[in-house]
């Protein structure tokens, strides 16, 4: 097996010796994601540091950023639950420089990566460690103008069938529990309390989860949005 020419070119660009290149090629062929080997992933116009502590941000999550940004005009408080590398929090902080943006994650390792990216790109973001809303300061209750999240949504039984390179990413970033819907259920249970009166939210979902997630958020007049391939990938909604 050999690497595609464009991947080989990218690895050659970051290796100083042939031995190092050989090791990188072997690692890539064994399933290590190219972005972990390079240590960066593009998100919009930015290059984010990534390593095995975080999910590699995906192109469809850039669409979530677009979808979410169109929901609000001048938000004062924005929350990115399950921030990983910090991609969404950073993109939203750049889009709405007047807003206070909070990025949260249960994984201290992931937050270290988010903090590193934020320090370079959006130093005003407040990074908070904890389990979903428990990470947020109490003063935000009833005042979140925009909440976004790309949470873990793979069901436990689906994990083994994921491609090898995806399984190199943190399991905590992928698997939510037996059904895949557990984190949405928990967000739905608390969202009303945290959103401002006209607060909005936008969530990334797995392409077969639209009906189930819409049902969970039915009190928020939810709508589904598609990715460029026409797949149901986002659910948006509003408090009123
Ligand atoms: C699918 S990744 C998304 C990362 C990033 N938002 C992105 O789109 O690239 C999900 C993230 O949720 C975090 N996570 C998992 N369970 C969580 C929980 N209960 N509370 C907060 N974060 C959680 C994981 O550590 C991981 O960083």
Overview of this protein structure:
- The protein has a single domain, classed as 3-Layer(aba) Sandwich (Rossmann fold).
- With 240 residues, the protein is of the alpha/beta class.
- The strands form 3 sheets. It has a 7-stranded mixed sheet, with helices on both faces. Strands 1-2 form a two-stranded antiparallel sheet.
- The chain is built from 10 helices and 11 strands.
- The model has no long low-confidence stretch (mean pLDDT 97).
- The radius of gyration is 18 Å and the shape is globular.
- It starts with a helix and ends with a strand.
- S-adenosylmethionine binds next to helix 5, strand 4 and helix 8.
Quick gist of this model?
This protein has 240 residues and is an alpha/beta fold. It has one domain: Rossmann fold (3-Layer(aba) Sandwich). α4 runs parallel beside α5.
């Amino acid at each position: 097996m050999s690497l595609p020419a464009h991947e080989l070119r990218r690895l050659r660009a970051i290796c100083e010796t042939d031995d190092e290149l050989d090791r990188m090629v072997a690692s890539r062929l064994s399933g290590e994601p190219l972005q972990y080997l390079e240590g960066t992933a593009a998100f919009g116009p930015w290059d984010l540091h990534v390593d095995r502590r975080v999910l590699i941000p995906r192109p469809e999550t850039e669409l979530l950023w677009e979808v979410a940004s169109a929901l609000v005009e001048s938000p004062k408080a924005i929350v990115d639950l399950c921030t990983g590398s910090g991609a969404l929090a950073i993109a939203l902080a750049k889009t709405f420089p007047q807003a206070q943006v909070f990025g949260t994650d249960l994984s201290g390792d992931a937050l270290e990566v988010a903090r590193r990216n934020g320090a370079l790109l959006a130093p005003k973001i407040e990074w908070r460690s904890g389990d979903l809303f428990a990470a947020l300061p109490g003063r935000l209750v009833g005042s979140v103008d925009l909440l976004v999240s790309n949470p873990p949504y793979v069901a436990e039984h689906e994990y083994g069938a994921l491609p090898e390179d995806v399984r190199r990413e943190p399991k905590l970033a992928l698997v939510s529990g037996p059904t895949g819907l557990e984190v949405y259920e928990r967000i739905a249970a608390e969202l009303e309390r945290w959103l401002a009166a006209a607060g909005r939210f936008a969530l990334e979902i797995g392409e077969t989860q639209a009906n189930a997630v819409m049902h969970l958020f039915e009190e928020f007049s939810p709508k589904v949005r598609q990715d460029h391939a026409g797949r149901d990938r986002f659910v948006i909604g509003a408090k009123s």
